[in-house]
Amino acid sequence: MTIVTSGLDTSAPEYAARRAAMLARLGELADEHAKAVAGGGPKYVERHRARGKLLARERIELLLDPDSPFLELSPLAAWGTEYPVGASVVTGIGVVEGVACVINANDPTVRGGASNPWTLRKSLRAADIALRNRLPLINLVESGGADLPAQKEIFIPGGQVFRDLTRLSAAGVPTIALVFGNSTAGGAYVPGMSDHVVMVKDRAKVFLGGPPLVRVATGEEADDESLGGADMHARTSGLADYLAADEHDALRIGRRIVARLNRRRPGPASAPAPPPLYDEDELLGIVPEDLKVPFDPREVVARIVDGSDFDEFKPLYGPSLVTGWAALHGHPIGILANARGVLFGEESRKAAQFIQLADRSRTPLVFLQNTTGYMVGREYERDGIIKHGAMMINAVSNSTVPHITIVMGASYGAGNYGMCGRAYDPRFLFSWPSARSAVMGPAQLAGVLSIVGRAAAEARGQVYDEEADAAMRQAVEAQVEAESLPFFLSGRLYDDGVIDPRDTRTVLGLCLSVIGDAPAEPSGYGVFRM
User: Fold this and answer.
1) If you compute the radius of gyration of the chain from its CA atoms, what whole number of angstroms results?
2) DSSP H helices in 64-218
3) Alpha carbon distances (Å) from 312 to 8, 293, 396
4) Given 3.10.20.340, 3.90.226.10, 3.40.30.10, 3.40.50.300, which CATH number is that of 38-259?
5) SS3 for 262?
6) Which of 144, 450, 511, 520 has the fewest CB atoms inside 10 Å of its own CB, making it the most exposed?
7) If you average pLDDT over residues 285-302, what whole number do you get?
8) What pLDDT does 452 receive?
9) pTM score
10) Taking the domain 280-438+485-515, which CATH number applies?
């Protein structure tokens, strides 16, 4: 039998404590998401509505097929920075006329929709997802351009936005711009470089230089409408393909454009999908509050894969890493999940072989991270942990099947790399609220600095200041702990969002569905025994 048998005791005090801790973190997550949804706050939201305009998320809702899901990406972008949570733009994946699309919507209630450095990074990530998964990109445009005080961080890298639009088009990925308001200066190139352009009458304004700049540069007097209004672009310049009567009409036209794209999925259709045998709600009580305490990832697998059916690969070898085959919403997957945190040589060789097998069968890989890194020490160095870890990282790096990563707990050191962290370009990466990620654990990092400082003092013949050392260790631990939290990391776009563990199956299912829109890449190598 390949059905996972759960050993989770939901009546145990440990389970109750873990569940309570996770629910508390989810409450904090809801509070942070609420900040992004609030946009610029009541004052600016009401001002926007008074102008007869829809909010960014309302535009998205009307664009999408009724009752279809929307997978929002990077909702905590800019968290912990001087800029508002969400970075004045909403990005995500949704279904329009039966076609999965990437949507990028400016939020004009936040500083007029002006782009800050995190807006740029968030938009570039959305374009990258569109290109890699061959998903049409729809820009819902209303932006005042660059946040000028931050121009030094935006202007030069910002050119990639326009480059990406041309590359998407060259790759046969449709790009659509629905312009609801300002799209000026460099922003004028968003409609200028899109395949399809819709502008709202008496609302959309697209020009390289607005009336004040034109007056200063040329002495010419011009008003917004004659210079770059929607009617002019529809009748005279030809930049607008469609002139919409209002915002609702623009969204209707946008849906019709997608309907006429003649998109056909190249990927295989998913098979019927029986639900897991165990309640997804029980995922709340699996991860310990103290990440040094191991947990069995099979308990997670049993609650996310179809029918809780999991064919484990090499179950008796390298037990600190669980590998095996399953299906999720009908999509075949291979799973690599950390069982005891530390990766040894056996686990590394096992992972490399399993990844190669997945590559040959063109099976997407899901990485469930809870790792403290590769094992250190004299015995392990002599046994070749460096080359074994390098073998695993090589396999991850050169595997050509899609990878999706979920950070459930710890993600420290090179274990982050071997388990397909952000630097290894997974198609998608999401974190649970229990996740932590850093070069090493806070106590270990502070301890290393203490040892180095003590050795330096001894080399100089000085007496080591124990009181200062204790203060340093405390400060370093606090800093590393704060900088390893999922909100901090998600705010810097090191993941695509922090998700409720109970949503893991749904999120993975949506990701696997859109991954099927991209053509399969050839395998980079054959299979050889490790």
Assistant:
1) 25
2) 117-133, 151-170, 189-192, 211-218
3) 19, 23, 19
4) 3.90.226.10
5) coil
6) 520
7) 95
8) 85
9) 0.93
10) 3.90.226.10
